[in-house]
Amino acid sequence: MAGKKILVVEDEADVMELVRYNLEKNGYLVETAADGREATEKVRSKSPDLILLDLMLPEIDGLEVCRSVKKETKTADIPVIMLTAKGTEADIVAGLEMGADDYITKPFSPRVLMARVKAVLRRKEMPADTDKSIVRIHEIEIDPGRHIVKINGEMINLTITEFKLLKFLASRPGWVFTRYQIVDAVHGNDYPVTDRSVDVQVVGLRKKMGTAGQYIETVRGVGYRFQEIVV
Predict the structure, then answer these.
(1) H or E segment and range at residue 205
(2) What string of DSSP letters covers 114-125?
(3) Hey, where are the domains in the chain?
(4) How many other CB atoms are there within 10 angstroms of residue 125's CB atom?
(5) pTM, full prediction
(6) pLDDT tens track for 1-56
(7) Concatenated DSSP letters of 129-190
(8) Per-residue pLDDT for 195 more than 60?
């Protein structure tokens, strides 16, 4: 992964230098921005391979920067890791719904930071899922080829991670999966996340699915399963 260009968007100078030092020590090329407006400009001009993005920024906040990155065709595929002091479920879900790929809450260890960076960059280079079969279950239709999900004929907008999570569970109704099995299926092996990260993704997915979100069942002490069709 050495030589990859990473844009660090952070208004706290000490945090910025800590992140820069550890990235450069591991062979990454680092660009920096201290506010949301500068970040938006550098995303377009520098074409980074990854963005480390603080949520609490002057000028334009991190969520708006993330939204801007993900809505433009030329930048939508750039992975975003939220780097933030905010740790509430609502803040994390909001960022993930904007299309962020992962999050790290402050304070963080440099080792965790580097593991997350490497994992997200590795995931970006993984070959795409080749199974393009349409999944139809309950009132849900999942079309991997066109990356479309419809519920009762109405299209819903999902992030890449949410789409993969839904497809994985809905393709195997009745099967119970642990959180780490879900992580491996959606993100690839050795992806460094906590149980809480999977739970947050499920919360966001259920919210977007409305009443159909009830089909993603929590199996206490184990993980999740997608409800089978009872004949």
Answers:
(1) helix 195-209
(2) HHHHHHHHHHHT
(3) 5-124, 135-226
(4) 9
(5) 0.61
(6) 568 999 999 999 999 999 999 999 999 999 999 999 999 999 999 999 999 999 88
(7) P---PPEEETTEEEETTTTEEEETTEEE---HHHHHHHHHHHTSTT--EEHHHHHHHHH-TT
(8) no
Query: Which residues contact residue 91 at a Cβ distance below 8 angstroms, ignoring those fewer than 6 apart?
Result: 55, 84
What CATH class does 5-124 carry? alpha beta
Q: d(Cα 96, Cα 77) in Å, to the nearest integer? A: 14
Residue 179, amino acid: R
Of the candidates 221, 122, 205, the one whose C-alpha atom is nearest the C-alpha of residue 170 is: 205
- Specify the fold of 135-226: Arc Repressor Mutant, subunit A (1.10.10)
